[in-house]
Amino acid sequence: MKLIDVHAHLEGERFAQDLDEVIERAKKANMTLIINSGVNPESNRRAKALSEKYGPLVKASFGIYPVDAVVNHIKNFPSDDVVREIKAFDVNEELSWIEKHKDSCIAIGEVGLDYKMAPGTEEEQKKVFSKVIELAKKIDKPLIIHSRGGEADAIDLLHQNKAQKVILHCFSGKKSLIKKAVDYGFFLSVPPVITRLDHFKTLVSLVPLTQLITETDAPYLSPVAGQRNEPANVISSIQEIAKIKKLTETEVADQIFNNAKALFKL
């Protein structure tokens, strides 16, 4: 089986001490693609550096996290949601940097909307998101979408702006929105936390295998509560999808690999 992780954060502090070992475990698990997603200027450059060090297995996705993009408009963060320092930056300058370095990335993400962490900034977020969608179309890159609390608006903006290649990462929207995303031809990624969250089991039951793909969001969304997640754990997603779809793990992995080939021109 050839395994795919379309969304991870390996550039962070939680992998600072043992990333070589993490990559080796991924190789032993037959990983063929790990997309490391940036969220701001600093992490985009780290993602680029990791793709250069660990390529061709690890590839970069350059992103502008919705909260980072509007930090100057936020009065108070929900304290339990802040897991890293968030600094203001010039969004247009970063979009220009991404365009300049388009050959160093395989996708644009993570990007999107986060109404839960930054309430009151919805309109500003949508303005930035629309710019990002236009850039992705211009440079012909798939979009990896974060849409916490803004799932309906994210889907509508993607459709209105005629985004063609879309992955909804860790999508937590209701059934009607899942079905809408499927109708629009979007892909939905399945994290290893599916082993302990029924929402993702429901999502898998609703989405055709031809529109599913696997992710880890490492170090988050682990199959085991309290443990750091890593790319090799994507096998947990494959196993759960196979159970739900009543297919073999190989059949699931092969179709997801083909989905990734079409999305990312592998």
The unreliable regions are none
Hey, roughly how much beta strand do the residues contain? 5-15%
- Describe the oligomeric state of these chains in a short phrase: single chain
State the end-to-end distance: 16 Å
Radius of gyration: 17 Å
List the total number of helices: 10
Largest sheet features: 8 strands, parallel
How confident overall, as mean pLDDT? 95
Structural class: alpha/beta
Tally of domains: 1
Instruction: Please tell me the CATH architecture by its name.
Output: Alpha-Beta Barrel
The CATH homologous superfamily is termed: Metal-dependent hydrolases
Query: Which fold name is given in CATH as the topology?
Result: TIM Barrel
Record field, number of beta strands: 8
Strand order in the largest sheet: 1-2-3-4-5-6-7-8
H and E order: EHEHEHHEHEHEHEHEHH
**Helical percentage:** 40-55%
Described by the principal axes of the CA atoms, the overall outline is: globular
Question: How would you summarize this macromolecular structure in one to three sentences?
Answer:
The chain is an alpha/beta fold.
Provide keyphrases for this structure.
266 residues; alpha/beta; TIM Barrel; eight-stranded parallel β-sheet; 10 helices; 8 strands; 42% helix
What would you note in describing this structure?
The structure is a single chain. The protein is an alpha/beta fold. The model has no long low-confidence stretch (mean pLDDT 95). Strands 1-2-3-4-5-6-7-8 form an eight-stranded parallel beta sheet. α2 links the parallel β2 (31-37) and β3 (58-62). The chain is built from ten helices and eight strands. The protein has a single domain (3-264), classed as Metal-dependent hydrolases (TIM Barrel).
